[in-house]
Amino acid sequence: MIRDGLYIGLMSGTSMDGIDAALVRLHRGRPELLRALVHPWPEALVGRLRALSGGSTTLTELGELDHLCGLAFAEAAQRLLQEAGVEPGAV
Prior knowledge:
Elements: E1 5-11, E2 19-27, E3 30-39, H1 43-51, H2 59-84
Antiparallel strand pairs: 1-2, 2-3
Pfam families: AnmK
InterPro entries: Anhydro_N_Ac-Mur_kinase (IPR005338)
Protein name: Anhydro-N-acetylmuramic acid kinase
């Protein structure tokens, strides 16, 4: 069973219209949505991700894009916490 506390959920779909972020409190197994937002993808990154559908890329490019996606997700999480007035250590 998941412990009571604050949790962040992050996801993005294939449309790449933004990163969905949610801050949820779990208490006795029940979720409560505290805050949600859609954080925009950096435009330059979206262009590079869309170019992947062309079929040819390198392992280096994939690694770099993975890193940049991680940074974008981190920005979304930081913005979510800031807007909710929650310190990162509380999650």
